[in-house]
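Weekly structure sync, notes
Attendees: PL, DS, HV (note-taker this week)

Item 1: tRNA-Thr(GGU) m(6)t(6)A37 methyltransferase TsaA
DS walked through the input record. Source organism listed as Streptacidiphilus jiangxiensis. Sequence as pasted into the shared doc:
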Amino acid sequence: MTDMTDPVTLRPIGVVTSPRIRPEYDGWGPVTASISLDEELFHPDAVAGLEEFSHLEVVFRFHLLGERDVVTDARHPRGRTDLPRVGVLAQRIKERPNHLAVSRCELLGVDGLTLHVRSLDALDGTPVLDVKPYLKRFVPESDRVREPAWVEEVMSAYF
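Item 1 (cont.): predicted structure, written out as tokens:
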């Protein structure tokens, strides 16, 4: 059994190139970026067939945050006191204990080991930990998914 205090070491598999260099809350929809996969790690056929998918799920690390930025309690989403205080695990904030993010984005094209994407909410230089094709079979039935009302309020301009 793994001890929860055992460190986990992850090697980035690529890096994001994006026009966004600072964290911003909104307007990610039209942002185009690329993910350059590590040529020392991957053979070019590692992406064979990926171009047949319309979207990707990208796991990355919020690399600009330090340990003192970590939030482990409740706070108002985006600092808005008109919204309820909710815990870090009830939000998708960047100040998470391991600084990990999962984002879905549109795959625009594959050029060798470079993936061209739109709507990836990652900054320039972001280390990518994994890339997976988005499969709608892994999404719960939409009529059974529920969210609190404040989510619509804070995400209305995100994409």
